[in-house]
Amino acid sequence: MYTQIEKACETLKAGGVILYPTDTIWGIGCDATNPDAVKRVYELKRRADHKAMILLVASKADVEALVGAIPAEAAVLIDDPARPTTVVYDRCRGVAEALKGADGSVGVRVTHEEFSRELCRAFGRPLVSTSANISGEPAARSFDEISPEIIAGVDFAVDWRREPEPPASPSRVVRVTADGNVTVLRP
User: Fold this and answer.
1) What does residue 108 show for φ and ψ, rounded to 5 degrees?
2) Residue 131: its H or E element
3) How much is the pTM?
4) Which of 32, 46, 77, 163 could disulfide-pair with 126, CB 3.0 to 4.6 Å?
5) How big is the CA angle at 79 (ends 167 and 18), to the nearest 5 degrees?
6) What's the DSSP call for residue 14?
7) Euclidean distance between CA atoms 174 and 69, whole angstroms
8) Cα(140)–Cα(150) distance, rounded to whole angstroms?
9) How far apart are CA 175 and CA 179, in angstroms?
10) Rg of the chain (C-alpha set)
11) pLDDT tens by residue, the chain, 187 residues
12) Got the DSSP string for 77-126?
């Protein structure tokens, strides 16, 4: 596992795009602070650049570094390892502008899965985490569902958890405003 993390980190630091397993589905990732790498992900997915992508981090402290104080309602959601939840916050700092919604909001998920958590820790910056598919196509719930075009389009495909497993699902997405209002965007 650690050799794969080292190779992924080298690729990310060089501005590359990776394919990696997350706590939900397989993801396409890059350094969320690198606008050129983010642009490559949008191009690979053939996704409109006005559609925000989420960030994956290793800890609540990482979230605080991006968004400031975490509303209590969001803290409860991100502490639950049983249900991966992406929380959309009103604001974010230190990431590529293309990752933010038109209103400046950004979705961030703390991963509780071993590989993706260790990758986030080792890299030390937020990762883009978007489904490993062409925009509009079904999300790849396992490695064998990823299209050859996506695999060929990344700089490094992690060789970890590729064996068939029970199908995974995308994370729940919940918006939590600074004043504590909670809206479920994707159950």
Assistant:
1) -135, 135
2) strand 127-131
3) 0.93
4) 32
5) 50
6) T
7) 17
8) 10
9) 11
10) 15
11) 889 999 999 999 999 999 999 998 999 999 999 999 999 999 999 988 778 899 999 999 999 999 999 999 999 999 887 889 999 999 999 999 999 999 999 999 999 999 999 999 999 999 999 999 999 998 888 899 999 999 999 999 999 888 766 667 889 999 999 888 999 999 9
12) HHT-TTS-EEEEES---SS-GGGS-TTS-EEEEE--SHHHHHHHHHH-S-
Question: What type of residue sits at position 151?
Answer: I
- Let me know: does 168 contact 141? Beta carbons within 8 Å: yes
Strand-pairing partners, residue 21, are 26
33 Cβ neighbours under 8 A, 6+ residues apart: 94, 95, 96, 125, 126
Nearest of 161, 17, 160, 172 to residue 80 by alpha carbon: 172
Question: Alpha helices of 131-175 — where are they, by DSSP H?
Answer: 148-153
Phi, psi torsion values for 128, nearest 5 degrees: -70, 140
Instruction: Judge contact between 133 and 140, C-beta under 8 A.
Output: yes
